[in-house]
Specification:
Layout (H helix, E strand, L loop, with lengths): L2 H34 L5 H13 L1 H40 L2 H14 L4 H12 L1
Keywords: Cell membrane, Membrane, Transmembrane, Transmembrane helix
Protein name: Cardiolipin synthase N-terminal domain-containing protein
Organism: Arthrobacter ginsengisoli
Length: 128
């Protein structure tokens, strides 16, 4: 086999693998969206799953055509909620001062929840 025949065969198999994994990703995205949609009843979810099992390619195309806009909206809503949670976490952790953290650790030490070694480790981490 020549170099070019080998090259085109490798390229063809790479393309087929890409298409296959893209297809699996799309099926997975549809299944996740089905269970993320709280307005869709359980029976309709079951019907979509059955169609995805027995007619996967056709069901995937129909789902994306019929419910693609809602799928994108639910995905954006989820990303917005996740970003809000991350921002809240960063605001909370940034608002805790080192002296507050040391006093909280001291209260835990006095209550017997943590050992003196753990308190020293927390204090040395905060003081850095």
């Amino acid at each position: 086999m020549s170099f070019w025949e080998n090259f085109w065969e490798i390229l063809w198999w790479s393309f087929c693998a890409f298409v296959f994994f893209a297809y699996l990703f799309a099926i997975f995205a549809v299944i996740v969206d089905l269970f993320r949609d709280h307005k869709l009843s359980g029976w309709w979810k079951a019907v979509w799953i059955v169609f995805l099992i027995f007619l996967p390619f056709l069901s995937l195309l129909v789902y994306l055509a019929a419910r693609g806009e809602g799928m994108a909206r639910r995905s954006m809503d989820r990303a917005g909620r996740d970003q809000t949670e991350v921002n809240g976490y960063f605001r909370h952790t940034a608002s805790v001062s080192p002296s507050d953290e040391i006093s909280n650790a001291k209260a835990l030490l006095d209550a017997g929840t943590i050992s003196a070694a753990e308190f020293d480790r927390i204090r040395s981490r905060v003081v850095r």
